[in-house]
Amino acid sequence: MLTTFGIFISLWLITAIVIRIPQDSVGLSSFANTSNLLGSPGSAQRFLDILTVSGIVMYFLIAFQLNIQAN
To answer: Rounded CA gap, 67 and 4, in Å?
Structure first.
């Protein structure tokens, strides 16, 4: 189960990092201004940053635990 969760986290992180919208792009800001779904572009970017860092920390913890179990 931990291996499956680790695979899911790693695939999610790869997707989240690859799809990141550059800072100078207006795509996220224009979407947020028209739909008001994500709130302001700054808060949406901050939320995505926190979510990505949390995923990275979870990935490292899972990898560390799986490494301990393998030895």
So the answer is: 15
